[in-house]
Amino acid sequence: MVTMSMSPNQDYAIEARDLSFYYGSFRAVKNVHLKVVPRQITAIIGPSGCGKSTVLRAFNRMNDFVPTAHIDGSILFHGKNIYDPDVDPVQIRRLIGMVFQKPNPFPKSIYDNIVWGAKINGFRGNQDDLVEETLRKAALWDEVKDNLKKSALALSGGQQQRLCIARALAVQPEIILMDEPCSALDPIATLKIEDLMRELSKTITIIIVTHNMQQAARASDQTAFFTMDEDRAGLMVEFGATQQIFTNPKDKRTEDYITGRFG
Ligand SMILES: Nc1ncnc2c1ncn2[C@@H]1O[C@H](COP(=O)(O)OP(=O)(O)OP(=O)(O)O)[C@@H](O)[C@H]1O
């Protein structure tokens, strides 16, 4: 197994280098170069089918579960291509966690949702402390502290999503990938998640796929705009500071998309 320790001067948290992604013979994404800035929130936006989720999942090898999927190019994490044969994907998914569109807590207690993954990953510390600390980080502690043995499925959708974020945090990742994490939530729960993302980004890197352009504009530091080419392959058109992308895009395709003329 490869040990990944942060090199002190690394200017990216993870980097896609000339990444093309295939499902069988279909090239879903082509030639993506993307350097994700550490401890910031990066939003990936673009029209349906342009490969946002595919790229996001490539960042922690979640696509390994799709038998026809394969990549060209590399994804560098601590200077190492995570697709190299000596890299353990389980270790990658511990360091690069994921939160999905629909909250998916385990059908267990709130407490067990937090400690389960941590125990599998060799956690030997005090479980009560881990649960409290993690739920505080996920801005959920005050709402659930008296009901830790209650089923996670009895929580509201927004609370379940914050629990899923807590569950991801419990194994101390460096990066959290979020695939449309608020699409099943109401506006108040959505804002709570965005506040939480802002707080978490002081210490970890967040990459979020969102269809909601206001959310990208409001909640991210960097934005990557993807679109689809004539061959239906997704490509990255533009990447930069969110404010620049939304106020002064360099590419006409970005401008058309963010002003609602396309997509
Ligand atoms: N498991 C799969 N097998 C085959 N093709 C797939 C698979 N998953 C995605 N695709 C195809 O890859 C392309 C990119 O899909 P992807 O879901 O990454 O796009 P997206 O931008 O996230 O779309 P959306 O915004 O609609 O979620 C699409 O053409 C899609 O049909």
H and E order: EEEHEEHEHHHHEHEHEEHH
Annotated CATH homologous superfamily of the domain at 14-102 and 175-258: P-loop containing nucleotide triphosphate hydrolases
CATH topology of the domain at 14-102 and 175-258: Rossmann fold
* Number of discrete helical segments: 10
| Beta-strand percent range | 25-35%
Distance between the termini: 43 Å
Number of strands: 10
The ligands bound in this entry are:
adenosine-5'-triphosphate
Structural class label: alpha/beta
Mean pLDDT: 93
Kindly report the spatial arrangement of strands forming the biggest sheet: 6-7-8-3-9-10
CATH architecture of the domain at 14-102 and 175-258: 3-Layer(aba) Sandwich
CATH top level of the domain at 14-102 and 175-258? Alpha Beta
Q: Please state the CA-atom Rg, rounded to the nearest Å.
A: 18 Å
Low-confidence stretches: none
| Coarse shape | globular
Outline the biggest β-sheet.
Answer: 6 strands, mixed
Keywords: ATP-binding, Nucleotide-binding, Transport
GO molecular function: ATP binding; ATP hydrolysis activity; phosphate transmembrane transporter activity
Pfam families: ABC_tran
Protein name: Phosphate ABC transporter ATP-binding protein
